[in-house]
Amino acid sequence: MSRIAYVNGRYCDQRLAEVNIEDRGYQFGDGIYEVVHLYRGKLVDADRHLGRLERSLKAIRLPSPMPMAALRLVLREVALRNRITEGLIYMQVTRGVAPRDHAFPKTPVPPALVVTCKRIPAYPTNIDNWTGTAITLPDLRWARVDIKTTNLLPNVLARQLAREAGATEAILYDKKTGMVREGAATNFWIVDADGVLRTRHLDHSVLPGCTRDALIAELKADGIAFLEKEFTVAEARNAREAFITSATSFVKPMVKLDGAPVGDGLVGPVSRALFDLFARHVKGNA
Ligand code: PDD
User: Fold this and answer.
1) Which domain holds residue 47?
2) Domain check: are 115 and 167 in the same one?
3) Are residues 71 and 165 in the same domain?
4) Which of 9, 90, 118, 212 is positioned for an S-S bond with 187, CB 3.0–4.6 A?
5) Is 210 in the pocket of ligand 1 (CB under 6 A)?
6) Half-sphere exposure of 158 (CA within 13 A, CB side)
7) pLDDT, tens digit, for every residue of 168-183?
8) Which residue's alpha carbon is nearest to atom 16 within ligand 1?
9) Whose CA is nearest to atom 4 of ligand 1?
10) For residue 36, which of 23, 49, 22, 18 has the smallest C-alpha distance?
């Protein structure tokens, strides 16, 4: 069965879907995107993702292509038409099609909206088969990475360097301060040498991950202590445990950092507990 995409008001065969070469997303990366996990046919943390989409659109002064309630229906419809129940929904909104000019189009054009859906393997049940490795790299991105823009070149290059190093993720740090920010497409957490669960605080230097936020809500509900406080690359290397979070990684242990084992190089007890906690969240809140 061929995949069905939603493109500017129409559901069409994804192989035949086309984008205008003067789409500002294509030319400038002038757009916003979201990735939502679909579990048993339901959107996981849809309110969080749609809330962030609205905030990102506002931050780059891009009007929403439709009310969020209508968009939610489109997301569901794309999943249904593709007959996908375990998958990822990708949506992107760009500033539309106009003759190339860096400033916004003088005569407003409608934003362009594309939604696609792809199948993923069933939700992981065994954390020991759900591990990865990471390398650290300097963060080369712009100063507002809290906005989820399609302008991802530094993230793309960092992920490629990770892949070439045989690693799953690149963990980006501030070159001036040596402080860790986040992964190329994930948030990053450690259990530090003192046993404290930590992830970097939110500001303009990291994406406020929906998985991060959902996990924090679960930690609070269960009374599990954690710190939203930045840490150095050295602290990450000395950590007992490390893991990444995202809509596609859930809670994924990083058992090696820069070629050396994190802790004893096996999945640690905190990662194991939080993997289970997040699985319960997905299953209960999808
Ligand atoms: N990435 N940080 C960055 C830079 C990201 O791109 C992402 C998401 C996250 C985690 O956010 P969330 O928990 O809301 O997925 C953190 C998506 C999955 C992607 O680009 O494919």
Assistant:
1) 4-119
2) no
3) no
4) 212
5) yes
6) 22
7) 999 999 999 999 999 9
8) 186
9) 185
10) 49
